[in-house]
Design a protein that fits this description.
20% strand; alpha/beta; 13 strands; five-stranded parallel beta sheet; globular; four-stranded parallel beta sheet; Rossmann fold
Length: 259
């Protein structure tokens, strides 16, 4: 059966429904697909799609998220490719979309992530499973204390130069869920470069050093601490803050135990 749908960029996509040959270009969505029970229908993933560990080992890898191999994807004869506006290179996505059905997602906060899970469930005929996941995420986040004081925080994703996030990002949304106020929320770029002086002037109470995409080490924490001697530094699991999808089910407990 054919199904016509609009993706998050309002592009009209026609797919075989339910799809039997799925390629995912997004690590967190790959994990979601497995958690929806689509193990037998996932034919291609990126080299960064590492969860669930055992299940992803033997799936064909089609390159990275930014430089995936279009020829390799076409050879897999997918009836659905799932991409993301931010995660994947626009030029490559549009080129691929001329040859196979590509659904582009757009996730920028907690609620758009919930909608994405529901959408992927609808795309793949796994509505019930998707609802179970979103219900569980909602229940877990609702258990977080609501009376904790909000602390001014910096979330660093890169060093040399330092880079952080603004209010238009999923990471920012998850910072709020963890009771942090993003001191660089109003920066113009989604992932702005900041200076040592910006960090000093921020008067942040907390600095979050991510494990990905740039892995901060203890020596980095020592140097950053000199910029804000009174701030508390956390080395955090970057997937918790940046992987939208079913991975959000473990985020609430992580926030509760860590902060």
């Amino acid at each position: 059966m054919k199904k016509i749908i609009l993706d998050d960029l309002q592009r009209r996509i026609t797919i075989n429904f339910p799809p039997k040959r799925i390629v995912s270009l997004v690590p967190s969505i790959t994990e979601l697909l497995f958690n929806l029970g689509l193990n037998n229908f996932i034919v291609g993933i990126t080299k960064f799609c590492v969860l669930p560990e055992t299940e992803t080992e033997n799936i064909t890898k089609i390159g990275g998220t930014k430089n995936f191999n279009i020829s390799d994807i076409i050879a897999l004869q997918p009836d659905l490719v799932i991409a993301n506006k931010e995660e994947n290179t626009k030029r490559l996505v549009l080129t691929l979309a001329n040859q196979v059905p590509v659904f582009v997602t757009n996730v920028f906060d907690y609620f758009s992530a919930i909608r994405m899970i529901e959408t992927v469930g609808n795309l793949t005929g796994r509505e019930t499973q998707a609802k179970s996941i979103t219900d569980n995420i909602g229940k877990l986040f609702n258990c977080l204390p609501t009376n904790r004081p909000l602390k001014k925080a910096i979330y660093l994703i890169w060093k040399k130069p330092f880079m952080t996030v603004n209010k238009n990002t999923f990471i920012h949304s998850m910072m709020l869920k963890a009771s942090f106020v993003n001191v660089f929320a109003d920066k113009e770029k989604d992932y702005p470069v900041i200076t040592n002086n910006d960090i000093r002037k921020s008067k942040a109470e907390v600095i979050l050093l991510s494990s990905e995409p740039c892995h901060f080490e203890k020596k980095d924490g020592v140097e950053i601490q000199k910029l804000l001697p009174e701030a508390k530094i956390y080395f955090v699991d970057g997937r918790i803050f940046s992987w939208y999808g079913s991975h959000m089910q473990i985020a609430a407990e992580y926030f509760y135990k860590t902060f």
